[in-house]
Amino acid sequence: MTLNKIARKQLTYPLLCTLAVIAVTSFCQWQGVLHRAELLLYDLHFSWREPQTPTRTVTLVLMDDASAEELGRQKNSWSRRQTAQALNNLCAAGATTIGIDMVFMAPSQDPDEDTILAQAVEGCNNVVLARISSSLSGDSREPLPLLQETMIGDGFIDAPLDKDGVLRRLRFLNGKPLADGSLQLFPSFALETVRVFLNLDYAFDFSKTDSFQLGTLNGRHIALPYPDLLINYRGSKETFPTISYGDVVRGNFAKEMVAGKILLLGSALATEKDRYATPLSGTSRQGETFQDTFASVSRETHDDLEFGVVCQAHGIETILTNDFIRRLSATTILLSIIILGLVGLIFYLPTLASGLEYALVLILLLTLAASSHLLFVKAAIWLEYAPLLMVVMGQFITGTILIKTMARNKAALVTSLFGKYVSGDVVQELIDGDIQTTLQGQPRELSILFSDIRAFTTIAEDLGPLGTSHLLNYFFDAMIPLVFKEKGTVDKLMGDAIMAFYGAPLAVANHQERAAESAVAMITTLERLKEIDALPGISRINIGIGLNCGIVTVGNLGCSQFMDYTIIGDPVNLASRLEGLNKVYDTKIIISQFMADHLRHKYLLRELDLVQVKGKHDPIAIYELMAPKNEANDTQVKIAQLFAQALPLYRHQKWHDAGQLFTEVLEIEKNDGPALLYRARLEEFSKEPPPLEWQGVTVFNTK
């Protein structure tokens, strides 16, 4: 894989992955794949929300186990005579509306009881009875005709459960097609109870798109949301004032709990089937054994489930308070998915700090959860969280995988380009950095090192091809790590020569010092190898090193078929010339005046000459790097001082005075190459003086 391909993928793949995540999330949302998970998240809103204060409009009359024992309930049915007595007592106490959450569809064994109950219903003139709109056989279960004649209304109590068996909503209406093509509408028990309580006409207006109206437009009416009622549960049955059915039958209750209110009468027996899991109750079950008058019945009960009459009370309370839970439109959810998908592009940023992406995804998910819950609590808006969770996690997971894949590809590319030329630490830093910028040809100030073995041709002739290769491998194994240690780059090996540079591809502020450290280490290491003398020919090796610094062009240079990360420019050529001058001056390390400006504070330098190398018009000063200052001995310091005094005299053609100083150097070190060279020059000048325009510059016309 090429660098350009990686760069293109870093731009295109995040966009393609984002589109895929948005598309998959939208499809799952449209197909209802996320619905079950969303219902669980929906229930959490009720669990996290504090219990809500009811309006105290609804009072429950619960036909509980205590009432069954007190009233002597038999044959698994309540006495309709007692129910009539309860209605009479409630109406006498001022109940505005009474809803009975029981279906009186079969006649009593005692016909008089049905008559008494019908008379009580007629006498109250505010009783709403229950019906079942449809059964498994497709038939409706309605109150007895006798009761239908006396009731003020009825409504269906069968409620649609969600796929997980939880009761979260109630239908407002059911329809029955008629022979003439029209549709007969039946209200739900909760809606009919509210209609009677508010004294609304049984008329509907479906002209609006977001809600429909119950009542007359010019009279009393209420607006109800499409398509059904999401019950805004305010708490458990303890939310509502409660009276025991037995107390109502006997008239033993406070009238203020009844007067002007809606009274809902329904079963609260432990063995009753009319119990539901709600967002607040959960769905756990516990078995328990119960016994009534006739038989021992062992059945599964749901102690944490809610009675149907309580659920109806919550539905009525929701309608009365107009506290409807409203869903956001499908368009809004889709727009939210798209926006979050685009925000998720942040997870595709390769520069994202390690670990920061985990913090970002956590912050984003918590922010969405908090926003969703805040909307639910403050505005009763159901912001579906599951698709938002899916798109964020999809972007996070996809982005993480893509970044790691791209990182592996980039690492492979960088390793293939630099693995043999720089140290492993440098490779890793290049992988972590901007490799695109690194590889582009660009001007940069670098330090360049050239190293060459002296008289290697003779050594190679003596050793033969195999011995020569062993010697070079042994030599390079020792020298190249010294370049890597200072974060240098080995540009190339040219036979027995090494070309390296410092400051690229990894930029370092003190590249001049690093190059000098490598040069000194090479000389020191070679001396140690020669002492060990572990390989034939190693003791005969001597090297010369040239160091220079300057602005060069560095980058991936070549053609489409072949690329090489290298440097070009005049400073490179000068470094090569300096390496060759070691043979002239019989030195080991020669540096340019440009390098000397950066190294003189740390290294003992000896100015050697003013030279004009081949290809250059302007002379430059060259220096011998003798040793680090903290390692230099007195002899080296003295020689450097004498040379510093002799060179000005030499350049002013004061041959005698300069010669005395060079002689002093040779008295200290008889084999000092530069001093021997200058004494030979002085002898030539004494025979044939230089031209008048001579300024002490030595011109080299060969490489």
Secondary structure: elements and pairs:
Layout: H1 3-31, H2 35-48, E1 58-63, H3 65-71, H4 80-92, E2 97-100, H5 111-124, E3 127-131, H6 145-148, E4 153-156, E5 169-170, E6 173-177, E7 183-187, H7 189-198, E8 204-205, E9 211-215, E10 221-225, E11 229-230, E12 242-244, H8 245-250, E13 262-267, E14 275-276, E15 286-291, E16 296-301, E17 306-307, H9 308-321, E18 326-327, H10 330-343, H11 356-379, E19 381-382, H12 386-418, H13 424-432, H14 435-439, E20 442-453, H15 456-485, E21 488-494, E22 497-502, H16 511-532, E23 543-558, E24 563-568, H17 570-585, E25 589-592, H18 593-599, E26 603-612, E27 620-628, H19 634-651, H20 655-668, H21 673-687, E28 697-699
Parallel strand pairs: 1-12, 1-13, 2-3, 2-13, 3-4, 18-19, 23-25, 26-28
Antiparallel strand pairs: 5-11, 6-7, 8-9, 9-10, 14-17, 15-16, 20-22, 20-23, 21-22, 23-24, 25-27, 26-27
Helix pairs in contact: 1-10, 1-12, 4-5, 7-9, 10-12, 11-12, 12-13, 15-16, 19-20, 20-21
